[in-house]
Amino acid sequence: MGRQQLHIFFFPMLAHGHMLPILDMAKAFSSRAVTSTIITTHLHVPMFQKAIQNSVDISVRGITFPAAASGLPEGIESVEMVKSEEMFAKFFLGTTKLRGELENLLEELRPDCLVADMFFPWASDAAAKFDIPRLIFHGTSTFAMSVGESLRRNRPFDGVSSDSEPFIIPELPHEIKMTRGQVSLFDRKKHEVETEFSKLFKDVKASDSNCYGLINNSFYEMEPDYVEYYTKKLGRRTWHVGPLMLCNNDADGEKAERGKKSTIDEDDVIQWLDSKPQNSVVYVCFGSVSIMTRAQLQEIARGLESSGQDFIWVIRKCVDEEDSEKWFPKGFEDRIKANGKGLIVNGWAPQILILNHESVGAFVTHCGWNSTLESVSSGVPMITWPMFAEQFLNEKLLTDVLKIGVAVGATQWSRVSVEVLKGEKLAEAVARVMVGDEAVAIRARAKEMKDSARAAVEEGGSSFNDLDSLIRELSAYR
Ligand code: UDP
């Protein structure tokens, strides 16, 4: 490994929503002659290895996730495999045990910088031991980071009388309203009794202000007020280098296979989309972690059918999946097969490929940040259906600030859907985004945002320049 080149360690959380953008980030750095080493646990090494086979400057090193020592069943090695809240806490605490092996690798390879996930607050101390800067990767919008700070500092939800009464989030560049039911349970709780888990989350929040800086998968033109707010008002050093997925190459199939093998043949999906008119298909996918109940899935099926639009629907799993009884509304599958209106993907879809197809006219999304950016980069308007994490905050950016999304009306923060939104609500939101004057205006704004996203990563664009200045600074630090 040539010591002339800057060498960066990338250490993502064990979840596709974090590993995929970090993989893209390593590719973006390697396109500027930076050497990258991705650190992950053994289960995920093959996924990364497959994805970097064309990149000489990126390598992967595997470490061991101590599932049993963390009180988890053997083999649990990803947030996506975690089923209960109790396992969730054990899993996150388990990741703190990765520190020893990370430090061994820092010692062995002596990189110039460590880019580590926000969920690894202890990584700052690990980097300090080797006298290298630690950058934090959040994997979300600067908007969500700004709103989250205000919510935690001001606790405006303490003053409302119910989970459904709206309140205004103070100190922000826009008037943003939300309800207590939409606020993350971690932020709502006061944690009067500190546990190991609540301490870890406190450390996660605190580490933003005691690290070298933050590297965000976003771009200035998408949220300029919040980039200013976060960097100037909150005083955080931040580089915006996204949308990182745009560094992927069609020719190498990097867009077709991301993270997991699709459970549907890519050519079949494209052929099906080719047979549909422009902007006519609604794509529905709720990411890799959230879980829908059968009751909710039934309502989605009803809503999609009654919207009258063509659709591709990715179904990950439902919470009572052991129950083998069919949960689709009566005759649903036969009808959509017969009239060719819908395509069901049970498992994993080639999302970027689908979003980039000109027949796709809207995306029903849980507002995970990667899905959001992928939709923005493809110019596809969104129907927003947040569930947990910071997804309700991303929704506000899309519906209230950028106005490129319409909310279905989710009100309860939960990883497993706890409310059952009626199919009619989905059909109404689909109609608003797909037909009429409002739809035309939303589509025009989405198209503008796509153009700025692409311009940001091209030579001379805001993200291109931010990445350059970060590399220059890290080289000088060395
Ligand atoms: N994804 C995909 N196919 C699927 C589901 C998800 O390729 O069927 C990808 C998606 O393109 C995105 C990532 O997985 O890059 C999900 O990240 P996001 O932040 O949207 O949501 P999360 O899964 O973290 O909730």
UniProtKB/TrEMBL annotation:
E.C. number(s) listed in UniProt: 2.4.1.-
Signal peptide: which range, if any? 1-17
- Which GO MF terms does the UniProt record name? UDP-glucosyltransferase activity
Q: What class of enzyme is it?
A: transferase
Question: Which is a Pfam family this sequence falls into?
Answer: UDPGT
Q: Which domain of life is it from?
A: Eukaryota
Keyword list, A-Z:
Glycosyltransferase, Signal, Transferase
Q: Which SUPFAM superfamilies match?
A: UDP-Glycosyltransferase/glycogen phosphorylase
Keyword Metal-binding set for record: no
> Which residue spans traverse the membrane?
none
Give the record's family classification: Belongs to the UDP-glycosyltransferase family.
Q: What is this protein called?
A: Glycosyltransferase
Q: Which organism is it from?
A: Rubia yunnanensis
Report which gene this protein is encoded by: UGT73A30
